[in-house]
């Protein structure tokens, strides 16, 4: 099976055609209700929702039947969040890439060739990579949803090959040796070392967005230049959060300075782009950036320093400083206060438990001393 650095699935093979045959340039949407015109309208909407590069990647790695179903599946109103649509598109693309690398079938005819045993093989691969239970279930849930949509909405006679009870570990278990639900939290001295390790405007900008703004990695890579409101100084950034809710964040002076230098006059398109391809950065590339910074900062186990670690550290640091839980919850974009509080409690439970154990030890020593009197 192919391997690739910092990507959960193998990269597409270099012999792919330059243009996907079933993703030709789109004409303007037409009026009428023929299936062909409906497909045109769906594709136009998805270009706006998930980006042309994600749509092109799906078209390259999927066969015509699977690609057609994916179009309508992603455009369904059951997936209202743009962040969810973009994440599902990337998940299906990477499953297709793994399937092609493992079977040699390209493009990947997932709907007609993916079986229970194939999904079992994928689960073993995911386990061997040490992915968390939550990550495995996210991929499998996306795949299962696609098959259910194909059978229900398109009347395609396929059986859903995904059985979550068999193929995915339950939430609350660990597949990589860490305690269930544990998220690494850095000390502020380590965060300062990470900041000092930034050498490019992009690295500085990524650090500011992940730590000082506390954004999710998916929120960072989804940012567009059109989201910037420059009528304010520093500029205000509009961010699409989970559930389709939008928030506005005022950038700090440092973030604004690095943003302007990084954009270098670009006025449209994604904020973060790959320097070689010019395409939007994805969350796996963002992980590569934080791991690289951790190596340069000489942090312990740099591969475990992910964008989520910076966000979790920021949330914990705010609660350590006594900031109100409700304010930190809103800042982090958590639906429930228990999620926000969980970051702090997991970090501080060891110190709390040690203090309680020390109290019992001292009380026991006092009792023993009284017996000797």
Task: Give a written overview of the molecule.
It holds the Pfam family Phage_integrase. InterPro entries: CB, DNA_brk_join_enz, Integrase-like_cat_sf, Integrase_catalytic, Integrase_recombinase_N, Integrase_SAM-like_N, Tyrosine_recombinase_XerCD. This is Site-specific recombinase XerD. Residues 1-34 are annotated as: Disordered. One of its GO terms (biological process) is DNA integration. By secondary structure, the protein is mainly alpha-helical. It folds into 2 domains: 35-167; 188-332, Intergrase catalytic core (hpI Integrase, Chain A), CATH 1.10.443.10. The protein has helices at 35-50, 52-61, 64-75, 82-103, 110-113, 116-128, 133-153, 164-167, 188-197, 201-212, 217-221, 253-263, 283-296, 307-320, 325-332, 337-372, and strands spanning 228-229, 236-240, 246-250. Strands 1-2-3 form a 3-stranded antiparallel β-sheet, with no helix packed on it.
């Amino acid at each position: 099976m192919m391997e690739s650095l910092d990507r959960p699935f193998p990269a597409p093979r270099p012999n792919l055609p330059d243009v996907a045959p079933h993703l030709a340039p789109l004409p303007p949407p037409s009026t009428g209700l023929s299936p062909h015109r409906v497909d045109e309208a769906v594709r136009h909407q998805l270009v706006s929702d998930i980006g042309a590069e994600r749509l092109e990647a799906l078209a390259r790695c999927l066969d015509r039947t699977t690609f057609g179903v994916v179009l309508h599946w992603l455009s369904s109103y059951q997936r209202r969040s743009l962040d969810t649509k973009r994440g599902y598109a990337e998940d299906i693309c990477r499953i297709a890439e793994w399937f092609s690398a493992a079977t040699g079938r390209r493009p990947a005819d997932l709907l007609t060739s993916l079986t229970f045993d194939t999904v079992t093989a994928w689960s073993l691969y995911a386990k061997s990579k040490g992915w968390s239970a939550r990550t495995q279930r996210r991929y499998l849930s996306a795949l299962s949803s696609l098959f259910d949509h194909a059978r229900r909405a398109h009347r395609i006679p396929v059986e859903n090959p995904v059985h979550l009870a068999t193929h995915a570990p339950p939430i609350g278990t660990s597949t990589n040796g860490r305690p269930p639900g544990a998220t690494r939290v850095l000390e502020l001295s380590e965060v300062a070392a990470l900041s000092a390790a930034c050498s490019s405007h992009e690295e500085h900008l990524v650090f500011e967005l992940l730590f000082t703004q506390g954004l999710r990695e998916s929120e960072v890579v989804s940012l567009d230049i059109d989201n910037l409101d420059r009528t304010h100084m520093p500029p205000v950034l509009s961010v699409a959060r989970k559930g389709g809710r939008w928030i506005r964040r005022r950038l700090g002076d440092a973030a604004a300075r690095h943003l302007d230098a990084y954009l270098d006059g670009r006025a449209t398109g994604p904020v973060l782009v790959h320097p070689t391809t010019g395409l939007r950065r994805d969350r796996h590339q963002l992980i590569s950036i934080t791991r690289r910074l951790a190596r340069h900062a000489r942090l312990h186990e740099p591969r475990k320093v992910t964008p989520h670690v910076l966000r979790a550290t920021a949330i914990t640091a705010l609660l350590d400083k006594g900031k109100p839980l409700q304010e930190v919850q809103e800042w982090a974009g958590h639906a429930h206060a228990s999620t926000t509080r969980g970051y702090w409690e997991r970090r501080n439970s060891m110190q709390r438990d040690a203090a309680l154990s020390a109290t019992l030890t001292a009380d026991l020593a006092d009792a023993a001393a009284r017996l000797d009197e």
